[in-house]
């Protein structure tokens, strides 16, 4: 039986395991999906060595960038992005891909009703890099702000928040079980012309999105993006793309 799996830490309430297990059952696919909760990325080699039936992995926080040295190659998009969320194992070779950017891009293409003048990307980790790549493909200008560095949440001018009509939350802040947490942002800058996109899907409505809704902004959580990226991973594992 073919095995697929998810690596990350922690993996409580994993989207991928439920999604693929249900897919396999519904489509009568003789495969299993397992969670591999790694306390350190160095454990990855042991997982692959002890599970010879594994054909592919999904990769989540905090290993989307740390996994790269353990792979035999990257596709062109993953190489440019610098982050991997999907691994195909074929003929003993582990090749990294990024399907996050495809999922994010597809959601925007279905949800945006008017052009975006500028996006604000909150966070600069692996998920942020996929978002940056997608926005470049969509020709949407963006600015990155984070906890540290030149442009932080605190020192970014309020006018930037007001003018940037698309805010994209790429950090794990507010993810279950820490559902009361949110980034300290000037939410009173929001209007009905703003769109708030949180890549988190659990809870379905984070504090970040709740604030957006209170000010009349359109809100989008990460569920649709996860579904799109999961289906892209399945295509890669089965050489459909």
Descriptive report:
There is one protein chain. The protein is of the alpha/beta class. The protein has 2 domains: 97 residues, Leucine Dehydrogenase, chain A, domain 1 (Rossmann fold); 124 residues, NAD(P)-binding Rossmann-like Domain (Rossmann fold, 3-Layer(aba) Sandwich), CATH 3.40.50. It has 8 helices and 11 strands. Strands 2-1-3-5-6-4 form a 6-stranded mixed sheet, sandwiched between helices. Strands 8-7-9-10-11 form a 5-stranded parallel sheet, sandwiched between helices. Strand 10, helix 7 and strand 11 form a beta-alpha-beta unit. The radius of gyration is 18 Å and the shape is elongated. The model has no long low-confidence stretch (mean pLDDT 95).
Short overview:
With 241 residues, the chain is an alpha/beta fold. Helices cover 32% and strands 21% of the residues.
Unreliable spans are none
Helix content: 25-40%
CATH topology group of the largest domain: Rossmann fold
Specify the CATH architecture of the largest domain.
Answer: 3-Layer(aba) Sandwich
Distance between the termini: 23 Å
Superfamily at the CATH H level of the largest domain?
NAD(P)-binding Rossmann-like Domain
The tally of helices reads 8
Largest sheet: 6 strands, mixed
Number of domains: 2
Number of strands: 11
- Mean pLDDT reading: 95
Helix/strand order, N-terminal first: EHEHEEHEEHEHEHEEHEH
Q: What's the CATH class label of the largest domain?
A: Alpha Beta
Q: What class do helices, strands and sheet pairing give?
A: alpha/beta
Radius of gyration: 18 Å
């Amino acid at each position: 039986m073919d095995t697929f799996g998810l690596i990350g830490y922690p993996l409580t309430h994993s989207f991928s395991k439920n999604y693929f297990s249900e897919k396999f059952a519904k489509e009568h696919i003789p495969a299993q999906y397992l969670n591999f909760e790694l306390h350190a990325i160095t454990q990855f080699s042991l997982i692959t060595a002890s599970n010879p039936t594994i054909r592919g992995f999904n990769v989540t926080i905090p290993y989307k960038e740390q996994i790269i040295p353990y792979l035999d190659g990257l596709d062109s998009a993953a190489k440019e992005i610098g982050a991997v969320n999907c691994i195909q194992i074929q003929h003993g070779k582990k090749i990294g891909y990024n399907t996050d950017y495809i999922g994010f891009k597809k959601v925007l293409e279905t949800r945006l009703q008017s052009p975006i003048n500028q996006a604000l990307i909150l966070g600069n980790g692996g998920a942020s890099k996929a978002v940056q790549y997608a926005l470049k493909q969509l020709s949407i200008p963006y600015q990155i702000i984070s906890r540290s560095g030149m442009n932080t949440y605190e020192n970014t001018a309020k006018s930037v928040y007001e003018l940037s009509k698309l805010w994209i939350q790429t950090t794990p802040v507010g993810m279950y079980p820490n559902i009361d947490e949110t980034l300290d942002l000037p939410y009173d800058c929001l209007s009905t012309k703003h769109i708030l996109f949180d890549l988190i899907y659990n809870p379905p409505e984070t504090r970040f999105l709740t604030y957006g809704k209170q000010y009349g902004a359109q809100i989008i959580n990460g569920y649709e993006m996860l579904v799109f990226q999961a289906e892209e991973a399945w295509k890669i594992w089965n050489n459909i793309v």
